[in-house]
Design a protein that fits this description.
The chain is α/β, with parallel strands linked by helices. The protein has a single domain, classed as NAD(P)-binding Rossmann-like Domain (Rossmann fold, 3-Layer(aba) Sandwich). It is built from 9 helices and 8 strands. A hairpin with a 2-residue loop joins strand 7 and strand 8. The longest helix is centred in the middle third of the chain and has 23 residues, at 190-212.
Length: 309
């Protein structure tokens, strides 16, 4: 990423509003380059399948080659449309850099970036860079990826960034814990740690909007409680058990993907009341999720942690 591109994302917020109203624009998903992280299963695959069928040029990512290949075969079998796949581990910053380089070499612009991949961990662990794993996987990895791809977002054509967040952000009852991002001082509670990272997803979307005006529109989404394999590789027995026995009451991946698909395809989205959506409408969020100071400070801290400063 050039210094000029980086500076565009580093400028102080231009707006202190809780949401931005974007101008009327002509928007269609056909022929858009769409990148979906975590697209080899669950919500991500459902989004990929629908947008590919709508004419988008879709690339999905996965941490596992075999799962990525199976997903490609499944999507192409259902839609008759070719999709691309690549490998990235969002918990490893080197992996994010390598993937971003490969993607930029093949695509000059991005119409829609869906930061969907994430995980939840039953016990505290660290990334190879020494960051707490949940925060590293769910926020720092997507933050770095979005920043590295910033030169392909916006410009002459508007782009959209959609972060998969969660109502679990309400567990972050003190906001972003800038004094303890690594959860070394506090007792590790899985849902509190996960909710902390999901609050960061909302604030990241806000930070994008504050820095890019109307050329990049960013949103955060609560997809609902969805029966997927989420958390299956995170070592969380609780999450795996809850998913296994609670699926009958959970949404299907396609249902969970609906608002993401709507945000990717709807021509005009009113964000005057906020940028956090669920069921195709603005959803209530915590005061921390609407706090411009939290968003700005998180942006600066994130840049430092991922090595962009």
């Amino acid at each position: 990423m050039s210094e000029a591109q980086a500076e565009r994302f580093r400028e102080r917020p231009q707006s202190e509003q809780t949401g931005l109203r974007f101008p009327t624009m002509t928007w269609h998903i056909a022929d858009q380059n769409v990148l979906i992280t975590g697209g080899s299963s669950g919500i991500g695959m459902a989004v990929a399948r629908t947008l590919a069928a709508g004419g988008a040029s879709v690339t999905i990512t996965s941490r596992d080659v075999a799962r990525a290949e199976r997903a490609v075969r499944t999507i192409e079998g259902l839609t008759g449309v070719r999709v691309a796949a690549d490998i990235v581990d969002l918990s490893k910053l080197d992996s994010v850099h390598e993937f971003a380089d490969r993607y930029i070499a093949l695509h000059d612009r991005i119409g829609v970036l869906v930061n969907n991949a994430g995980n939840v961990f039953g016990s505290r662990r660290e990334t190879v860079e020494g960051n707490e794993m949940t925060f590293g996987t769910n926020h720092l990895g997507p933050f770095l990826l979005t920043s590295l791809l910033s030169g392909s977002l916006g410009g002459d054509h508007a782009s959209r960034v959609i972060n998969t967040s969660s109502v679990a952000h309400t567990h972050a009852k003190e906001g972003i814990l800038f004094d303890d991002l690594g959860w070394k001082k506090r007792r590790y509670k899985m849902m509190d740690v996960y909710g902390h990272s999901k609050l960061a997803n909302i604030l990241h979307a806000r930070g994008i909007n504050d820095r890019t005006g109307t050329e990049v529109q960013a949103y955060a989404v609560h997809p609902g409680v969805v029966g997927t394999s989420f958390g299956g590789r995170g070592g969380s027995v609780v999450v795996r058990a809850a998913t296994k026995f609670g699926k009958r009451w959970m949404r299907t991946p396609q249902e969970g993907a609906d608002t993401i698909i709507w945000l990717a395809t709807e021509p005009n989205i009113d964000t005057t009341k906020g940028i956090y959506f669920s069921d195709r409408k603005v959803e209530k969020s915590t005061r921390f999720a609407r706090d411009p100071d939290q968003a700005d400070r998180l942006w600066q801290v994130s840049e430092r942690l991922v090595g962009l400063t």
